[in-house]
């Protein structure tokens, strides 16, 4: 009976030990994915900020500037692209809407971001764009991959339409979570004017024809959960200028927008709560279950060997009784 039990335990040990790497290296890449229908909005504020007054073309201080970022998954577009991409794809339509203290639009930049649902690598397909202009992204945007590494990543900047390194700056504690802190600085660069400007009747083309250019620089900061790859906080020290041309007296320059943009505290709390729940699911597939099954497999193997050893006889082998043959 012990021999039979030890064989059953041995089979269970082999099963649990084999299941451990399967969960980590086979199930995890196939189950941990961004849902194609995701919707999310985030509100950031700059208090105070500097804006250009288009009536006088001079910079002025304002008490608050609000940035609303919305993100919406396009399921139909993702299904269409998946037919030729041979992978699970997510299509995000995002909008960065900047409003002044009176609630009126300062600028808005729409984007279409297409990426792999698990790795977050860009998937280049028709429709990939920023403010209506076709782009070809390299690197990540908005989200890091699952299981973030302590290294620099290429991060796409929507203003310049290019990618640049975003640097890992160390591990920190944020709202009780261990996070990785990243920084990216974009030096002064001439960038395109938004297609929609706040002044009625003034277009990006008309401003360009007057010889006026838009320049931009920013310092971008993210606090990223290393398990899910989701930023739990983000800030930017942002500055834009209009330079040269007939629009500015004497062909000089004026600050169009400047401010330290921070995520609103109530949105920080909501994001931290959301990420805390999601990281448990990722840890189940990458740590808790694989290590748990491996530990269980080793325990079952030890128990199987113990039962096998106890099932064997411990005394000396029985002495064979001599066979006596009878005479005639």
What does this structure look like?
- There is one protein chain.
- This protein is of the alpha+beta class and 328 residues long.
- The chain has helices at 2-31, 75-85, 204-209, 265-311, and strands spanning 39-53, 58-62, 65-73, 89-99, 105-116, 129-130, 133-134, 153-157, 162-174, 177-191, 213-224, 231-243, 253-263.
- Strands 1, 2, 3, 4, 5, 6, 7, 8, 9, 10, 11, 12 and 13 form a 13-stranded antiparallel sheet that branches.
- Strand 6 and strand 7 (133-134) form a beta hairpin.
- The longest helix has 47 residues, at 265-311.
- The radius of gyration is 31 Å and the shape is elongated.
- The mean pLDDT is 88.
The helix/strand series, from N terminus to C terminus, equals: HEEEHEEEEEEEHEEEH
Class from secondary-structure proportions: alpha+beta
List low-confidence stretches. none
* Helix segment tally: 4
Classify the helix fraction into a percent range: 25-40%
N-to-C span = 47 Å
- Integer-rounded radius of gyration: 31 Å
What is the molecular shape? Answer: elongated
Strand proportion, as a percent range, falls in 35-45%
Indicate the multimeric state: single chain
For the residues shown, what is the average pLDDT? Answer: 88
Number of strands: 13
Largest sheet: 13 strands, antiparallel
